[in-house]
Amino acid sequence: MTLSACTGSKAPPPVEPAAGKSEKSIAPPAEPAAQKSESTARVAETPTANTSSTPVGENATVSTPSAPSDVAAPPADATTTTSGLAYKVLREGTGNNRPTITSKVEVHYSGWTTDGKLFDSSVVRGETISFPLDGVIQGWTEGVQLMVVGEKTRFWIPADLAYGETPRRPGAPAGMLVFDIELFNIKEPPPPPPVPENVAGPPDDATVTASGLAYNVLREGTGTVHPEASSTVEVHYSGWTTDGKMFDSSVVRDEATRFPLNRVIPGWTEGLQLMVVGEKTRFWIPADLAYGETPTRPGAPAGMLVFDIELLLIQ
User: Fold this and answer.
1) pTM for this model (two decimals)
2) 52-187 is classed in which CATH architecture?
């Protein structure tokens, strides 16, 4: 079982979206909005499938990592942080810089429950995984920030920094979890895009559809085909509330996102069908085409939302 099938509120990066997503979302994000303290449009349950990865050699043989001899509990020489996270460096790194909470990192990892059961391993899958460090369980967010490139560290992550003693999601590993993590690369995100000068409302030259969706084309596209509601699309996007607060951005995450167009808020489903590949458009989405004036889901942004969307691919 990979963690793509057993995420709770957050997860070490899976390689595919969770199955059975029932709630509409803007795009497949790194974590569920219900667990975020700040407003977010990222309301799907797992990180996206379009993570970058590095495969092992074609003829390489990948063996299943053995459970650590100290899997049941951290040894006496482990370091324990104030949060309760315990760790031990298995191999010193060659880098000088440590990632920050906003960094995107590339790692190999294997994870065990304290009875020695391996529940996930990028090593077994034969490819490293890249992900934003603020989109994983708290034990990972804290622990990987202690590492440098080339380092391999074992972490004993208490339940309250993982999925809990009784995970809400079926199949998620319970209790303390043990991970061996090797850090390969650190990439800092690009700066956030500036707040649109007309974020408070659509300008006079914006086009308004019958539904109330307003838009301005910022850059003409090169494509000739428009997506349909049943299409899967890949986009870069940034979203703001009308007071200029950015609540989500694939640009900041430095990772385009892919999703079925009929699985997002109505303003996106309608608006993206007006676009062609290569086009960048600004949308002013009224509340009734977004999450409403009083969203039912905790953390979802309220009222009119403003998005800059660049269409990269139609499937």
Assistant:
1) 0.62
2) Roll (3.10)
